[in-house]
Specification:
two-stranded antiparallel ribbon; 4-stranded parallel β-sheet; Dna Topoisomerase Vi A Subunit, Chain: A, domain 2; 194 residues; 39% helix; homodimer; Helicase, Ruva Protein, domain 3
Chain lengths: 194, 194
């Protein structure tokens, strides 16, 4: 229906997360209707990503060898917070409550798909957590099936590292009402009472 | 929080239709996690758009001077269907019911913003509809506020062209039930009874 260039772009954009063929078509026509200059800006913004590398300690995106968090002298080097992805790290940083360092797993594992283990940084985490300064690892994966199985995997990886391992607290979210909380959340809230 | 390259990309992607900062962040990290080769493919797909031009008759995207619909000898050259944008044209083509030609306005006008008139192809439509072979113009704008005001604008533009002007039928959609139809739809269905 559309010229091959547009069909190809729709196809490419359909692979973006949460994007289906309909939204991809809207994006393609948005890009088509941009001026040459504006389209060049989009291309440049994407190209600039190749200047970005990963922090050699936490795997956060950075332009330096070691990122601004890992190289910050004021941060507590004895605690490592393990998250699934960089956006999770950002969420925790926004609380301004955590003063330790991070480690980004780069994904989740499923107990049913062994090959997932190659997609996350299990070996790298083991190595990092074995360094002398690390005393505690906080597992901060999501509270869903993938997050849970990833947490179990991380616990197994850390077994031989001799570090204290903890998990994020579970319970009612702020503003949460007992009437509307699901059973699992209430159970966690009871177990994790303080 | 993120390196400037990522912040800039998030900013650029936030301008895509229906995309907010959260989704733009997901897109940015999706692009960051692609291999250099895959990212190059995305860039090439966007760059290829500059090969695309617009049909000189209907303003549909095409690689030729006149698009495949406008140059199709079997199509009825006396009828012109005016749509807001190319995706609307595609929707009508999918019905395989319409055998005439098209004209893409390129946007909508609002009675409150006079400058919108420069963003749509009013002058070009007038010229096209004045050509001798054109006998009827079907206004196929959306059934919403912008579509309605654009339809009124198109009617005004066509006044002096001496062509028959019609509108898409309004009424219950296929599968629609009276119980759930809104008043305006029912009114249109009554007026447009056949």
């Amino acid at each position: 229906m559309y010229p091959p260039e547009i069909e190809k772009l729709i196809n490419t954009l359909s692979r973006f997360p949460t994007v289906g063929p309909r939204t991809a078509t809207r994006f393609a026509f948005y890009l088509l209707n941009l001026s040459d200059k504006e389209r060049e800006n989009v291309i440049e913004a994407i190209s600039a990503l190749s200047n970005i590398s990963m922090c050699s300690l936490c795997y956060r995106s950075t332009e330096k060898e070691v990122c601004s968090i890992c190289s910050d002298e004021r941060r507590d080097k004895s605690t490592l917070c393990v998250v699934e992805q960089e956006t999770d790290l950002t969420s925790i940083e926004k609380t301004k409550f955590y003063g330790g360092l991070y480690f980004i797993m780069g994904g989740t594992v499923s107990p049913l798909r062994k090959k997932d283990f190659d997609n996350v940084r299990g070996k790298e985490l083991k190595e990092r957590a074995s360094q002398e300064e690390v005393k505690e690892v906080i597992i901060a994966t999501n509270q869903n099936t993938e997050g849970e199985s990833t947490a179990l995997y991380i616990e197994r990886v850390l077994k031989s590292c001799g570090v204290k391992v903890s998990r994020l607290g579970r319970g009612l979210p702020t503003g949460g009402e007992l009437e509307y909380a699901d059973e699992e959340t209430l159970k966690s809230a009871l177990k994790g009472r303080s």
